[in-house]
Fold this sequence. Notes:
The protein has helices at residues 2-6, 15-20, 26-29, 36-61, 65-87, 93-112, 119-122, 125-152. The chain is built from 8 helices and no strands. The protein has one domain (2-159). It is mainly alpha-helical.
Amino acid sequence: MFPVFSLVLDKDVSGKIALTYPELYKELSKGRSLSFKTFFMWVLISVYQGGVIMYGALVLFEDEFIHIVAISFSSLILTELIMVALNVRTWHHLMVLAELLSLGLYVLSLVLLKDYFDAEFIQTTDFLWKVLVITLVSCLPLYILKFLRKKFSPPSYSKLS
């Protein structure tokens, strides 16, 4: 949860540029950034990623429930950390700390919650490649779409950065 809260520190442009070019606020005043379309795009992304994580762990890979839990939990945490990292425009030291702290808490939970995770399975390369494949399938298409959108339809503030 720490990386999501650290997004409050993210800035599109510096304060000086924002004061110099007040037309940057035009997009915000028209409500394009915070529209129903934007909201439903995030809902669609969430449904896609949730489906990939759950069905990837459930259908494609394992028969044992405790392994499905470990794979899906790990993929979910890594996907969240990657998605926050992809959406940050200006990195702040607290954002880096939040990402590392969340990753550390994830690793700590694997160690401390042994009743919920198979410790032997988590240490195998089988677990590692399954988590990496599911995480890549859930994040890579979204990263490619973001890259293409930034390339062909950049936001107005990116021209000033």
